[in-house]
């Protein structure tokens, strides 16, 4: 469980540190910042491994959680001058950190063979994905469709 605790602590730092991030020295256009945000989100999604093997669930989840944490750190490291884009970045990070933590809860419930805990975590992950979709629609509305 120490990996799980380490992951939670790292994500708490990610979530809280964005507010203190300095703006980049060079001003970018809204379009350039939108492209960079979209690129970061696509990179995050693409680096998550697919969960295919039921037999090696623990190893798959460990890989997924590690990839998720690395992606969150990369997304958090991006600096934006546009206040709306910074807001979208923070909202996205908040949802993804919550989803990451809910995945940890899902893993723990599987390890404990706790069906009710599993169902609660799975429902929360579904809620997280709906929240992520809402943020995505706001980004699309502000930035336009990614090309």
What is the count of helical runs? 5
Radius of gyration, CA atoms, in whole angstroms = 16 Å
Main β sheet profile = none
Q: What is the overall shape?
A: elongated
What is the terminal-to-terminal distance? 41 Å
Helix content: over 70%
| Low-confidence spans | 16-25
Keywords:
elongated; 0% strand; 5 helices; mainly alpha; 147 residues
What would a concise description of this structure say?
This protein has 147 residues and is mainly alpha-helical. The chain contains five helices and no strands. The N and C termini lie far apart (41 Å).
Word description of this protein:
α1 (2-17) runs antiparallel to α4 and α4 (83-112) runs antiparallel to α5. The chain has helices at 2-17, 30-47, 57-77, 83-112, 115-143. The termini are far apart. It is mainly α and 147 residues long. Helix content is 78%, strand content 0%.
Question: How are the elements arranged and paired?
Answer:
Elements: H1 2-17, H2 30-47, H3 57-77, H4 83-112, H5 115-143
